[in-house]
């Protein structure tokens, strides 16, 4: 019993573990760490959603087992959201499953549709569950460039042509975590056309579709005519309504794929606690001014980050969407790698970020910065980093190389 179990052996060392340990040690010493690492919203859930939870939880009948695919009222609320936001009609009975956040939904979809030896195409860098959902299920992944341009489609065609067995599907995710890239409807039209041509399915993740900072709301792939023939889309209430701990999301789209997910979930869980589902329906059906307020809060933080870090000598590309910035490691520190740079920021500047390599080996050379501190704290972080740059010039070339980690494509 000394060897790791088969599925555990397929998981690489947790890239963030050392950074998290250093962060915990620093706090134990009394350091005031400005944590821009984990994408964990710091603002409260809107009051009308909390009030609905409190109202519902007082009813004893809501304490019983719930429905694994989601209570009917919640699925109808998600259908109404898709029609209102995207002009897409969904059948709440056959084309929608409520999930315990989009992460659980994605992982269980991988369990439902893949078998050992199956191949799926996944962008790199990307949110880890996009790859590890399939890896844990025993499937194999092939990396694609994390792109919203023609090179992405060329890579898909090349992979399908040269992979044995033929890939079953492809993952796309816009707005992207971690890169913050966005895609337009033309991209989705091309994606659907290519999927039909190649005979593959599409799993689309739009968890950040409501966190955008211009006048072009990100579209849904299901807006494309015929997309339901090949695609399922995952959404989440975590960021849209500041509800991360509530664990509420959805998978919608292709009836066959949704049916497979619903069947697997029926064996694994009884769904989220009913009062949470009722409150989630209230979020979708209720006043949406809170969504705009949340969006503007992240925009203000983004602007503060770009302005203050730029003045500190750390230019940050302005993200068009999401609650993240994807920033190149400053050139003098690049040779040491993203993990080493993230560790130095904790030790020398009391600032925590996520090393880009944690999102795939092609994320090396970048860090992800989460907009989860207020503007004052973001500017404080910028001042600390500026001081670090000024006080420690000799450490720039001496950063240790990161410990090699196993490839996501194992």
| Major sheet details | 7 strands, mixed
Helix-strand string: HHEHHEHEHEHEHEEEHHHEHEEEH
How confident overall, as mean pLDDT?
Answer: 92
Q: Specify the structural class.
A: alpha/beta
Distance between the termini: 23 Å
Supply the CATH architecture of the largest domain: 3-Layer(aba) Sandwich
Q: Which strands sit side by side, in order, in the main sheet?
A: 2-8-7-6-5-3-4
Given this structure, which CATH class of the largest domain is correct? Alpha Beta
CATH superfamily of the largest domain: Type I PLP-dependent aspartate aminotransferase-like (Major domain)
Query: Which spans of ≥5 residues are poorly predicted at pLDDT below 50?
Result: 395-410
Number of helices: 13
Approximate helicity band: 40-55%
Structure description:
The protein is an alpha/beta fold. It folds into two domains: 6-44 and 290-392, Aspartate Aminotransferase, domain 1 (Alpha-Beta Complex), CATH 3.90.1150.10; 49-285, 3-Layer(aba) Sandwich (Aspartate Aminotransferase, domain 2), CATH 3.40.640.10. Helix content is 41%, strand content 13%. The protein contains 13 helices and twelve strands. The strands form three sheets. Strands 2-8-7-6-5-3-4 form a seven-stranded mixed sheet, with helices on both faces. Strands 9-12-11 form a three-stranded antiparallel sheet. Helix 6 links the parallel strand 3 (119-124) and strand 4 (140-145). The chain is globular and about 60 Å long. The model is unreliable at 395-410 (pLDDT under 50).
